[in-house]
Amino acid sequence: MDPVERERRRTRRACKRTGSQDDRAKRGDTNVLRSLSVGNIDDNEVTDDLELKSGTLECKVMAPRYSLLREVGRGSYGVVYEAIARKSGARVAVKKLRCDAPENVELALAEFWALTSLEKRHENVVQLEECVLQRNGMAQKMSHGNKRSTQYLRLVETSLKGERVLSCPEEPCYLWFVMEFCEAGDLNQFVLSRQPDPRTNSSFMLQLSSAVAFLHQNNIVHRDLKPDNILISERSGVPVLKVADFGLSKVCAGLSTGMNQGDDVENKNKPKSMNINKFWLSSACGSDFYMAPEVWEGHYTAKADIFALGIIIWAMIERITFIDAESKRELLGTYVRQGAEIIPVGEALLENPKMVLSIPQRRRSQMSESLRKLLQDMLAVNPQDRPDAFELHNRMGHLTCAA
């Protein structure tokens, strides 16, 4: 693949970027959050949607009151704050996404749909407490569907049509996501600030495979698994991983399957849901160093999540890092060297499908033969040769128990 084609592929993906902080925007966010809480109805009260006299905005259904403590993250599409619920005193994360362009709306709705589609909680998936749709200081608590909300339906229409259908650009629209707060940062920060610990590595591998199996069981393909999007909580006294940031996720529907009389014994414990690995996706999105070969081509399934997970685990075990060109941060991630250039593994395999990956990469690696074989399977060029999420979690359980 020539450099021009490589650059074309890279610019085609929808990868989130880190932006600079803006003090004025930060002060404005504090005021918006205050306006959503001061003088509102009781925290637990929910009213019907009513139209105001102006005919432009809906009556507000207010969220519980929160106080912003500090900004903990900022990107092109939104800002994340550490906050505290005034009534309970609980610490939460509040993510504010501005819905001023179709691509922003699409990311916000993707996260909302993914997290609200989960009927059960999972310890290793970040928990959404509530979502609030806000416009000009007026707010409405979101629920899945929200068929009676004109504003919600306009957001959906904006996403589907790819053009802004909200009335006045001068009236900004936001989605506020209130989620559990993970005080230990992301996987990059946690791993690289501590000495290697085989026991922690084993725990993290099992937690990650459990989270992905849960998401795939619920027909969700994450599509942007990377250490930045894996948060860590230590409230229980031990580090617990939380897969987060579902802005590029896809909730798949259809292709429902059940257990038939002739099914394998190995598959008996799998949920009676659709076969998510037969649902084909075409939007090439994600982050370069974690994208599977087929994602670069724009034709892939949920097996792309398995590839990304293989890259993350390999980098975590061997402490393989690179410096992100834009943020200048040191990030966990494996790659292939081509002269002076480092190439994402997925892109290198796309260029040369017969390439044999050097696993482990470091000469003095303590990686076991069983883990090496598992990583090779997870990073197979052909998605059909990779384990699915349920097989992966089963193999990971045997591997970590043996360790």
UniProtKB/TrEMBL annotation:
Domain of life: Eukaryota
Membrane spanning stretches: none
Any one GO cellular component localisation term in the record: cytoplasm
Subcellular location per the Swiss-Prot or TrEMBL entry: Nucleus
GO function term, MF aspect, one: ATP binding
Entries under PROSITE patterns matching the protein: PROTEIN_KINASE_ATP (PS00107), PROTEIN_KINASE_DOM (PS50011), PROTEIN_KINASE_ST (PS00108)
Protein name: non-specific serine/threonine protein kinase
Organism: Chanos chanos (Milkfish)
Gene expressing this chain: stk35l
